[in-house]
Amino acid sequence: MKVNKFEVYVENSFSAAHHLKLYKGKCENLHGHNWKVGVIVSSTKLNTQQMVIDFVKLKKVLNKILYQLDHKYLNNLPFFKNNQPTAENIAKFIYEKLKEKLLKYKNIQKIKVIVWETPTQYASYEEE
Q1: Is 27 a catalytic residue?
Q2: Which of 10, 51, 97, 109 to pair with 125, CA 20 to 30 A apart?
Q3: Running DSSP on this structure, what letter comes out for residue 2?
Q4: How many independent structural domains does the chain possess?
Q5: Whole-structure pTM value
Q6: Which one of 27, 28, 31, 127 is the catalytic residue?
Protein backbone atom coordinates (compact mmCIF):
# COMPACT_ATOMS: atom_id res chain seq x y z
CA MET A 1 0.00 0.00 0.00
CA LYS A 2 1.27 3.42 -0.95
CA VAL A 3 1.74 5.93 1.87
CA ASN A 4 2.10 9.61 1.10
CA LYS A 5 4.56 11.55 3.20
CA PHE A 6 5.27 15.26 3.30
CA GLU A 7 8.54 16.69 4.60
CA VAL A 8 9.69 20.20 5.38
CA TYR A 9 13.28 21.20 5.99
CA VAL A 10 14.89 24.22 7.63
CA GLU A 11 18.47 24.90 8.63
CA ASN A 12 20.55 27.36 10.54
CA SER A 13 23.96 27.44 12.18
CA PHE A 14 25.74 28.25 15.39
CA SER A 15 29.35 28.53 16.56
CA ALA A 16 30.56 26.71 19.65
CA ALA A 17 33.62 25.14 21.22
CA HIS A 18 34.04 21.71 22.77
CA HIS A 19 36.55 19.01 23.50
CA LEU A 20 36.09 15.26 23.57
CA LYS A 21 36.82 13.40 26.77
CA LEU A 22 38.20 9.85 26.65
CA TYR A 23 39.36 10.47 23.09
CA LYS A 24 42.91 10.14 21.82
CA GLY A 25 43.63 12.61 19.04
CA LYS A 26 43.32 16.27 18.10
CA CYS A 27 39.70 16.49 19.19
CA GLU A 28 40.61 15.91 22.84
CA ASN A 29 41.92 19.49 22.75
CA LEU A 30 39.64 22.49 23.05
CA HIS A 31 38.49 23.52 19.55
CA GLY A 32 35.49 25.06 17.84
CA HIS A 33 33.21 24.57 14.88
CA ASN A 34 30.72 26.50 12.84
CA TRP A 35 27.99 23.89 13.17
CA LYS A 36 25.16 23.67 10.63
CA VAL A 37 21.88 22.17 11.77
CA GLY A 38 19.14 20.84 9.53
CA VAL A 39 15.70 19.77 10.71
CA ILE A 40 13.30 17.56 8.77
CA VAL A 41 9.72 17.37 10.00
CA SER A 42 7.37 14.93 8.31
CA SER A 43 3.72 13.97 8.29
CA THR A 44 1.25 11.98 6.23
CA LYS A 45 -1.36 14.68 6.90
CA LEU A 46 -1.29 18.40 6.32
CA ASN A 47 -2.71 20.82 8.86
CA THR A 48 -5.68 23.10 8.23
CA GLN A 49 -3.39 25.51 6.36
CA GLN A 50 -2.31 22.64 4.08
CA MET A 51 1.19 22.57 5.60
CA VAL A 52 3.17 20.13 7.69
CA ILE A 53 4.20 23.18 9.74
CA ASP A 54 4.76 26.81 8.83
CA PHE A 55 8.44 27.31 7.92
CA VAL A 56 8.50 30.53 9.93
CA LYS A 57 7.29 28.77 13.09
CA LEU A 58 9.73 25.89 12.68
CA LYS A 59 12.65 28.28 12.11
CA LYS A 60 11.69 30.29 15.19
CA VAL A 61 11.67 27.15 17.37
CA LEU A 62 15.00 25.98 15.94
CA ASN A 63 16.62 29.39 16.37
CA LYS A 64 15.61 29.56 20.05
CA ILE A 65 17.26 26.18 20.64
CA LEU A 66 20.42 27.10 18.75
CA TYR A 67 20.66 30.33 20.73
CA GLN A 68 21.26 28.16 23.81
CA LEU A 69 24.34 26.68 22.08
CA ASP A 70 25.72 29.64 20.15
CA HIS A 71 29.15 30.87 21.26
CA LYS A 72 29.14 28.48 24.21
CA TYR A 73 31.65 25.97 25.51
CA LEU A 74 29.43 22.92 25.09
CA ASN A 75 31.17 20.84 27.75
CA ASN A 76 29.90 23.30 30.39
CA LEU A 77 26.21 22.94 29.48
CA PRO A 78 24.16 20.68 31.79
CA PHE A 79 23.19 18.18 29.05
CA PHE A 80 26.83 17.60 28.19
CA LYS A 81 27.96 16.99 31.76
CA ASN A 82 26.95 13.33 31.28
CA ASN A 83 26.97 13.24 27.47
CA GLN A 84 30.05 13.65 25.30
CA PRO A 85 29.58 16.81 23.15
CA THR A 86 29.78 14.87 19.87
CA ALA A 87 27.79 15.77 16.77
CA GLU A 88 25.56 12.78 17.57
CA ASN A 89 24.74 14.05 21.05
CA ILE A 90 24.29 17.62 19.86
CA ALA A 91 21.72 16.27 17.37
CA LYS A 92 19.98 14.41 20.22
CA PHE A 93 19.98 17.53 22.42
CA ILE A 94 18.37 19.59 19.64
CA TYR A 95 15.92 16.79 18.85
CA GLU A 96 14.72 16.54 22.45
CA LYS A 97 14.17 20.30 22.66
CA LEU A 98 12.36 20.34 19.30
CA LYS A 99 10.14 17.41 20.20
CA GLU A 100 9.05 19.17 23.38
CA LYS A 101 8.19 22.37 21.49
CA LEU A 102 6.43 20.64 18.57
CA LEU A 103 4.11 18.40 20.62
CA LYS A 104 1.21 20.77 20.05
CA TYR A 105 1.34 20.10 16.29
CA LYS A 106 -0.70 16.89 16.24
CA ASN A 107 -0.10 16.12 12.55
CA ILE A 108 3.71 15.92 12.93
CA GLN A 109 4.79 12.30 12.96
CA LYS A 110 8.55 12.40 12.70
CA ILE A 111 11.44 14.74 13.42
CA LYS A 112 15.00 14.28 12.24
CA VAL A 113 17.92 16.49 13.24
CA ILE A 114 21.13 16.63 11.20
CA VAL A 115 24.24 18.30 12.62
CA TRP A 116 27.18 19.10 10.33
CA GLU A 117 30.46 19.42 12.20
CA THR A 118 32.23 20.28 8.94
CA PRO A 119 30.97 20.72 5.37
CA THR A 120 31.80 17.06 4.65
CA GLN A 121 30.63 15.20 7.75
CA TYR A 122 27.46 15.08 9.79
CA ALA A 123 25.58 13.05 12.37
CA SER A 124 21.82 12.77 12.75
CA TYR A 125 19.25 11.74 15.33
CA GLU A 126 15.66 10.60 15.00
CA GLU A 127 13.35 8.27 16.87
CA GLU A 128 11.84 5.27 15.12
Answers
A1: yes
A2: 51
A3: -
A4: 1
A5: 0.95
A6: 27
